[in-house]
Amino acid sequence: MRRRGRERVPINAEINVVSLIDVMMLLLVIFMITAPMMQGGVDVALPQVEARPLDPKSGIVVTVTRTGAISVDGTRMSQSEFRASFKALYGQRAQQGVYVQADSMARHGDVLRVISVIQNAGVANVGFVAEPLPPGK
């Protein structure tokens, strides 16, 4: 608007934050919806055995699924990628140990191939992850 004469319009130095709050709320809703979808993992039905539990330790966890898929600490790899990169992975964290999580329905040959790669990398002791038997069995 123009004003007649020499009257000046006062300058408004305040920031309009309403639109910024709208964008922030929209992003918050988007992140709240997508965050649960981003949590990945490998579904493995561990075998149930009679064994005493070990102290929880951090280490490299190698998972073999019933389809023969391999993942190392949640990162999925092919057999050739696993064979090529495991020695380097173990070299970075040699003090922490290696634990094999094999699905109870995984083929025996797939698990043995993974164990042979682990042993060829210089790992002397390999831990196997299992579920304890339910009470009464």
Description:
By secondary structure, this protein is α/β, with parallel strands linked by helices. Helices cover 35% and strands 17% of the residues. It has three helices and seven strands, in the order H-E-E-E-E-H-E-H-E-E. It has helices at residues 18-38, 79-92, 108-120, and strands at residues 48-49, 60-64, 70-72, 75-77, 98-102, 126-128, 131-132. A five-stranded mixed sheet has the order 4-3-2-5-6, with helices on one face. A two-stranded parallel ribbon has the order 1-7. Helix 2 (79-92) runs parallel beside helix 3. The protein is elongated and about 90 Å long. The mean pLDDT is 81.
Gist of the model:
The chain is of the alpha/beta class and 137 residues long. Helix 2 (79-92) runs parallel beside helix 3.
Main β-sheet, spatial strand arrangement: 4-3-2-5-6
Name the helicity range: 25-40%
Q: Count every beta strand, where a strand is a DSSP E run of 2 or more residues.
A: 7
Order of helices and strands: HEEEEHEHEE
Mean pLDDT: 81
User: How large is the count of helical segments?
Assistant: 3
Structural class: alpha/beta
Straight-line N-to-C gap: 85 Å
C-alpha geometry? elongated
What is the radius of gyration? 28 Å
**Proportion in β-strands:** 15-25%
State the low-pLDDT regions, or none. Answer: none
Largest sheet: 5 strands, mixed
